[in-house]
From TrEMBL, chain A:
Classification via InterPro entries: ABC_transporter_permease (IPR051393), MetI-like (IPR000515), MetI-like_sf (IPR035906)
Domain ABC transmembrane type-1: 88-300
UniProt protein name: Sugar ABC transporter permease
Protein's UniProt keywords contain Transport: yes
Automatic annotation (TrEMBL), chain B:
Name this polypeptide is given: Carbohydrate ABC transporter permease
Organism: Actinomadura napierensis
Keyword field: Cell membrane, Membrane, Transmembrane, Transmembrane helix, Transport
Gene3D superfamilies per UniProt: MetI-like (1.10.3720.10)
Keyword Membrane found: yes
TrEMBL record, chain C:
Recorded coiled-coil stretches: none
Domain of life of the organism encoding this protein: Bacteria
Protein name: Extracellular solute-binding protein
Source taxonomy: Bacteria, Bacillati, Actinomycetota, Actinomycetes, Streptosporangiales
Pfam family, one: SBP_bac_1
Listed Gene3D superfamilies: Periplasmic binding protein-like II
InterPro entries: Bact_solute-bd_prot1, SBP
Organism per entry: Actinomadura napierensis
Signal peptide: 1-21
C-alpha cells in the first residue's frame, strides 16, 4: 500500500551500530507490545468467530454437552425449510428496492445541493439528521406513522383525498415500507459523501464542456458521473453489503410478517438461533450469507483501494 | 475559499431565467427537505405531548391541545430511562477508551515501528472488513458467552461491548494511513533526543493526529449508541440494556404517548452530539477510505 | 502498557464472572430438608420492577419476612419488566444467564426441559408443603416423564375480555356477554358501527401470539393442535377452518376488526385502554395490565368464558431451576416458592395486604389449587378482600370449572410461528384461501414435529 519510511530503520542504517540485530529484536518486541491489545481483541472477536462460523454450521450444539459434528445436516434442514428461498428472495428484493431509491436519490440530491449557494449548512444538517437517530428510534417512530388508522402517513394521504394504504399489514406493501424507513434513516450519509466527491470535480471540465455546447444532462453524463465513478461504485457495494444484512427493520416492525413476506436471511438466522434454539441451522445460514457478502466485500476492497490511490 | 465552478455556470445563473429557476429550486428544496426530514421529528416531539385519546384522533391535529409534558415524565419514570442512558454512556465511553488504547497503539506500531510480519497482521485485520458483523453474530455471541481458552462468560458485562468494539479494522486502517503521512523527520528528531517509542507516540504523534482521533472517537461513540442487535444479545439482563434495546422491548408496554416520549428522550443524546460535533462528523464521513 | 490494562480488565472480568457462578450441580438424591446451618444464597427471577412500586414493596417485605424465618437463606431478586421478553428469552437461556430460580411461561417449559436447561427437582419436591395441593392439571405443565421440574406461579384460562362501556354504547347488555362465536360476530358488528375508529373484535397475529391465540380458538371450537401422540398436527380440520372463517368474515365481510393488523398483546391492550376496542381473547390479569400500564379503569372491563365453551387454553407462568443449581439452592428455592407464591394469605396470595396497598383484588386469577381445601381457602381470602367490581368477572368465574382447559402443544413456538402466518394471511388478504393456508401450515407443522423427533 504505502511506502512511507519507517521510524527506526533509517537511523540504524545511518550509524551502523554493531548491535543492529539486538536493536531489531528490541524494535520488534516493542512493536508487538504495542500490537498485542489489538491482536487479542481481533483474535477473540474477529478471527476466531469467523473460523467458528464455519465450524458451527457443521455442528449441532445444545449448550449442555459437547457440540456434535453432523456433516451437512444443518444445511439440509435449512434448505428444506420452505422459508429459506423466501428469505433470500425477500433479501434480494429489499436490496434491489433499497438500491433503486437509496442509491439514485442521494446522488441526485447531492447534485442539486452542490449547485445551491444558499442554506447549504441547513440542508446538509437536515439531510443528515435522521442518520443520527438511533435506528431503533427511527424504526419505532415509523411503526407509529404506518398505523393504518390514525398513523401519519395515511392521514396525509387522506388529507389529499387519496385512499390509505395497509403499509406493514399487506404482503404487497410491507417490504416496501421497510425500505422506506431504511432509506429515510440512511440517506444522509450517502448524500454527504457524494457531495464531497462532487466538490472535487475541477470546474474547468464543466467550462470546457459548455464551450463544446454540452447541455445540462450531457454534462452530468459525461463529466459528473465519470468523475465520481469510483465513489459511485464503492457506495454501490457498501450499500449492497449493508442492506443484505437487514435485521432491525423486520425485527421491530413486522416480526417477519405478514406471511413471512419480510423475513430476511439475517432475520431467519436470528430466528433459527434464538427462537428455535437451533444454532447449527443459524450457523449454516450465516455461512451462506457470509460467502455471498464476501464476494461484494472483496470487490469493494479492491475498488476502494484503487480509489484511495 | 473561492467558489469553484459547478455543473451550472455562474453566467447561466446570472440571467433572469436562471435566477428564477435557482430560487424556485432552492425554496422547494428547503421546503421538501424540512418536510421530509424535520417534520417527522416535529411529529414525534409533539406526539408525546398529546394524550392517548388525542393520538387516536382522525384526522390528527398538527398542534397538541396543550403543552403537556406528562408523556415525557412518565417515560422517564415508568421506563427508568435514566438507568439506560447511563448504561449506554458507560458502554460508549468504555468502548471509546478501549478503541483509542488498542487501535491507536496498533496503528502506530504498524505504521512507524514496522515489525516483522506487520504487513501480514495488517492484512489479516483488513480481511475482517470483508466479513460484515451480522454474519458472525452467532459465533461472536457464542465466543463472548464462553471465551476460548479463558472460559470467561462476558455476557451481561460491559466487556462484551468494549472489547469487540476495539477489534475495528477500519479504525486501524484510518489511523495507520494518517500516521503514515506524518513526516518521519519529526519522529527522528525525537528519537535522537532519546525518546522511547511510547513517548514519541504520546508527545509527537498524538498531538498532530487530533483530526483523525476526533473522527475515530465520534464514530466509535455514536456506533455504540446506535448499535442494536449486538447489545440485544449480549446484555439480556434488564438492568444492563442499552437505551435502544430497552425502549424497543419496554416501550410497547406503555401508552402511546409514553412510548413516543421515550423515543424522543432516546434520541436527544445523539442529536446533541450532532449539534456540537457537526463539522467533525461530516468531515469524518468523507474520511472513510474514500478521499484522503 | 495498553496490554497491561487489558490484562487487568480481563482479570477483573474473571473475578466478576467467577463470583457470579453458583455451585456445580452435583445432582445428589438427598431428600433431607435443608440444614438450618447451611448458608444459601439464591437468585430469583421476576422480582417486580421499580415502576411497579407497590408490588416491589410487597416482594421486599416478603423477602425480609422469609429471611427472618430462615436466616441461613438469602434471596437475591432479579427484577425485570416484563419478566420475559419473548424475543430474547431463548438467548438468555442459551447464554446460561438464567437465575437459580428462573421465571418461564408455560409455553416454553417443554422445550426448555427437552434442551436440558432446567434442573430435575423430583428428589426435593417433597419438601414443598404446598405442592400436593397444586392442581394436577397445572402441575402437569412442569412434569416430563414422571419427573418434576418446576412450580407454577400463575395459572389462568383464556376467556373473552370485553369493554363494558362500548357494549352499553352499542346497545348491548354488558351483563350478558356473547357466549358463542356467532354472538361475538354480531356484537363486534354493532360495536364497530359506533365509528370513530372503534374496533369490534381484535386478534393477535404477530410475534407468535397469532399462533397462540389460534390455538386458543381451535380449543374453543373443540379442536386440537396435535394428535394424541404429539407426532402429527391436528389443526387442519373443521375446527381450524371454522376459526379462520370466522376471522375472515369479521375482518372482510363485516369489517369489524379494524384495519391495523399484525397486533400483539400490548397493541390490543392499548386499544382497549383507550376505549377503542370491544372484545378480544385474554386472561383475567389483562385487567391489571390495562390499569397499571395503560391507565384504563377496572370498572370498564368484563370477562366472559371463551365463546363456545367447549375448551380453552390454559396458560400461566412459574419457576424452573437452573441446571447449575446445587441441591441446597433447589431446596431453598422450593422453600421460597412455597412461602411467596403458593401459600394462601402470604406473598402473592396475600390479598388483604394487596387491598391495603391500593392494588386491585378480586380478579379470578391465579387458579393454582383446583377444587380442594387450599383452593377454597384461597378463593375465600380473595373474596374477603375484593375491592373490584367482581361481578364483572362473574360470567367467566362461574363457567371456569365447566370449560375444560387444555395445555399448549409440543414445539409450541415453532407451531405458533407457522400459524402466525396463517392468521396474518386471513387478516391481511381479502382473497386468502383458508383451505390452502391450513394445508400448507399442516405440512410445515408436521415437518417441524417430525424434526423434533421426540
Amino acid at each position: 500500500m504505502t511506502t512511507a519510511r519507517t521510524l527506526v530503520r533509517p537511523a540504524a542504517h545511518a550509524r551502523r551500530h554493531p548491535t543492529r540485530a539486538r536493536r531489531a529484536v528490541k524494535r520488534n518486541l516493542t512493536a508487538y507490545g504495542f500490537l498485542c491489545g489489538a491482536l487479542i481483541c481481533f483474535a477473540f472477536f474477529s478471527w476466531y468467530p469467523i473460523v467458528r462460523e464455519v465450524l458451527l454450521s457443521f455442528q449441532k450444539t445444545n449448550f449442555v454437552g459437547e457440540a456434535r459434528w453432523v456433516g451437512l445436516d444443518n444445511f439440509r434442514t435449512v434448505l428444506a425449510d420452505p422459508g429459506f428461498v423466501d428469505a433470500w428472495v425477500n433479501t434480494a428484493e429489499f436490496t434491489l428496492l433499497a438500491l433503486v431509491v437509496g442509491y439514485v436519490v442521494p446522488f441526485a440530491i447531492a447534485i442539486v445541493l452542490n449547485e445551491l449557494k444558499h442554506a447549504r449548512a441547513y440542508l446538509r444538517f437536515v439531510v443528515y439528521l435522521p442518520v443520527m437517530l438511533p435506528p431503533a428510534v427511527a424504526v419505532l417512530l415509523f411503526k407509529w406513522f404506518y398505523d393504518p388508522g390514525p398513523g401519519l402517513f395515511n392521514q396525509m394521504l387522506h388529507a389529499v383525498h387519496l385512499p390509505g394504504l395497509s403499509w406493514l399489514d399487506s404482503t404487497s406493501t410491507a417490504l416496501v415500507s421497510l425500505v422506506i424507513v431504511s432509506t429515510w434513516m440512511n440517506l444522509g450519509s450517502g448524500t454527504l459523501i457524494y457531495l464531497a466527491a462532487l466538490q472535487t470535480i475541477p470546474g474547468e471540465l464543466y467550462e470546457a464542456a459548455e464551450l463544446d455546447g454540452a447541455g445540462l444532462f450531457r454534462r452530468i453524463r459525461h463529466i459528473t458521473i465519470p468523475q465520481t465513478r469510483l465513489i459511485l461504485l464503492v457506495m454501490l457495494l457498501l450499500q449492497i453489503i449493508a442492506t443484505m444484512q437487514v435485521f432491525i427493520e423486520p425485527y421491530l416492525l413486522t416480526g417477519g410478517g405478514p406471511e413471512g413476506s419480510t423475513v430476511t436471511v439475517a432475520y431467519l438466522m436470528y430466528q433459527y438461533a434464538f427462537n428455535f434454539t437451533n444454532f447449527g441451522g443459524g450457523g449454516a445460514l450465516g455461512l451462506m450469507l457470509m460467502l455471498v457478502l464476501m464476494v461484494f466485500s472483496a470487490i469493494y476492497l479492491r475498488v476502494s483501494r484503487e480509489e484511495a490511490r | 475559499m473561492a467558489e469553484t465552478r459547478t455543473l451550472v455556470s455562474p453566467h447561466t445563473l446570472g440571467t433572469r431565467r436562471g435566477k428564477a429557476v435557482y430560487w424556485t429550486t432552492l425554496v422547494s428544496i428547503v421546503v421538501v427537505f424540512t418536510f421530509v426530514f424535520v417534520f417527522p421529528l416535529y411529529w414525534m416531539v409533539t406526539g408525546a405531548m398529546k394524550s392517548p385519546d388525542e393520538l387516536a384522533d382522525v384526522p390528527p391535529d398538527v398542534f397538541p391541545h396543550h403543552l403537556d409534558l406528562s408523556g415525557y415524565r412518565e417515560a422517564w419514570r415508568q421506563l427508568d430511562l435514566g438507568l439506560y442512558l447511563r448504561n449506554t454512556l458507560v458502554y460508549a465511553v468504555g468502548a471509546w477508551l478501549f478503541t483509542m488504547g488498542v487501535d491507536v497503539t496498533a496503528a502506530y506500531a504498524l505504521s512507524k515501528l514496522r515489525p516483522m510480519f506487520g504487513r501480514a497482521v495488517l492484512g489479516l485485520m483488513l480481511a475482517t472488513l470483508m466479513v460484515p458483523p451480522m454474519v458472525i453474530l452467532l459465533p461472536a455471541y457464542l465466543t463472548v458467552k464462553d471465551l476460548p481458552l479463558l472460559h470467561l462468560n462476558l455476557l451481561n458485562t460491559p466487556w462484551a461491548i468494549w472489547l469487540p468494539a476495539a477489534a475495528n479494522a477500519f479504525n486501524i486502517f484510518l489511523l495507520k494511513r494518517f500516521f503514515d503521512s506524518i513526516p518521519t523527520e519529526l519522529l527522528q528528531a525525537a528519537e535522537v533526543d532519546g525518546a522511547s517509542p511510547a513517548r514519541i507516540l504520546w508527545s509527537v504523534v498524538l498531538p498532530v493526529s487530533r483530526p483523525i482521533l476526533g473522527v475515530v472517537s465520534i464514530f466509535t461513540i455514536v456506533n455504540v449508541w446506535r448499535d442494536f442487535v449486538w447489545p440485544l444479545l449480549v446484555l439480556p439482563d434488564s438492568h444492563r440494556k442499552t437505551i435502544s434495546v430497552a425502549i424497543s422491548s419496554l416501550a410497547v408496554q406503555v401508552p402511546q404517548n409514553v412510548l413516543i416520549g421515550s423515543l424522543v428522550i432516546a434520541s436527544v443524546p445523539t442529536i446533541v452530539v450532532f449539534f456540537v460535533f457537526q463539522r467533525h462528523i461530516m468531515a469524518g464521513l468523507t474520511a472513510g477510505g474514500l478521499k484522503g | 502498557m495498553r496490554s497491561r490494562i487489558l490484562a487487568t480488565a480481563l482479570a477483573a472480568a474473571l473475578g466478576a464472572t467467577v463470583a457470579g457462578c453458583g455451585g456445580d450441580g452435583s445432582g445428589g438424591k438427598d431428600t433431607a430438608p435443608l440444614d438450618a446451618g447451611t448458608k444459601v444464597s439464591i437468585t430469583v427471577g421476576c422480582m417486580p420492577a421499580k415502576s411497579q412500586a407497590a408490588q416491589r414493596r410487597e416482594w421486599l417485605e416478603d423477602v425480609a419476612a422469609f429471611e427472618k424465618l430462615h436466616p441461613n437463606i438469602t434471596i437475591d431478586g432479579k427484577d425485570a419488566f416484563p419478566c420475559i421478553d419473548p424475543n430474547t428469552f431463548q438467548a438468555k437461556l442459551a447464554g446460561g444467564q438464567m437465575e437459580d430460580v428462573y421465571y418461564v411461561y408455560f409455553t416454553d417449559v417443554r422445550g426448555v426441559i427437552a434442551n436440558g436447561q432446567a434442573a430435575d427437582i423430583t428428589p426435593y419436591v417433597g419438601q414443598s408443603k404446598q405442592y400436593p395441593s397444586v392442581d394436577p392439571a397445572v402441575e402437569k405443565v412442569f412434569k416430563d416423564g414422571g419427573k418434576v421440574y418446576g412450580l407454577p406461579r400463575q395459572n389462568y384460562s383464556m376467556g373473552l375480555f370485553y369493554s363494558r362501556p362500548l357494549f352499553k354504547k352499542a346497545g348491548l347488555d354488558p351483563d350478558r356477554p356473547p357466549t358463542t362465536w356467532a354472538e361475538v360476530r354480531e356484537a363486534a358488528k354493532k360495536i364497530s358501527a359506533l365509528g370513530d375508529g372503534t374496533v369490534g373484535y381484535a386478534e393477535f397475529s404477530a410475534k407468535n401470539q397469532g399462533g397462540w391465540h389460534f390455538t386458543t380458538s381451535v380449543y374453543s371450537q373443540g379442536g386440537d393442535m396435535v394428535t394424541a401422540d404429539g407426532k402429527k398436527s391436528a389443526f387442519n380440520g373443521p375446527q381450524g377452518r371454522a376459526v379462520l372463517q370466522n376471522l375472515k368474515d369479521m375482518r372482510w365481510t363485516d369489517d369489524s376488526m379494524g384495519s391495523k393488523q399484525l397486533l400483539v398483546d400490548a397493541d390490543v391492550q392499548r386499544m382497549m385502554a383507550a376505549g377503542k376496542l370491544g372484545m378480544y381473547l385474554g386472561a383475567p390479569d389483562n385487567a391489571t395490565a390495562l390499569v397499571d400500564q395503560f391507565k384504563g379503569r377496572y370498572e370498564d372491563y368484563g370477562m366472559a368464558p371463551i365463546p363456545g365453551s367447549t375448551g380453552t387454553l390454559m396458560g400461566g407462568d412459574g419457576y424452573l431451576f437452573s441446571p447449575k443449581a446445587s441441591p441446597e439452592k433447589i431446596k431453598a428455592g422450593l422453600m421460597w416458592l412455597d412461602y411467596a407464591m403458593l401459600t394462601p394469605g402470604q406473598g402473592q396470595l396475600n390479598y388483604a395486604r394487596a387491598a391495603k396497598d391500593g392494588r386491585p383484588v378480586g380478579i379470578p386469577q391465579p387458579k393454582l389449587f383446583g377444587q380442594n381445601a387450599m383452593g377454597e381457602k384461597d378463593r375465600q381470602l380473595r373474596a374477603d378482600s375484593a375491592n373490584l367490581p367482581v361481578a364483572n368477572f362473574k360470567p367467566y368465574e362461574d363457567a371456569y370449572a365447566k370449560v375444560p382447559g387444555k395445555l399448549e402443544p409440543p414445539q409450541a413456538q415453532q407451531l405458533y410461528t407457522i400459524l402466525d402466518s396463517v392468521v396474518q394471511a386471513v387478516l391481511t388478504r381479502r382473497d386468502a384461501n383458508i383451505d390452502q393456508l391450513l394445508a400448507d401450515a399442516q405440512k410445515k407443522a408436521d415437518a417441524a414435529l417430525a424434526r423434533s423427533g421426540s
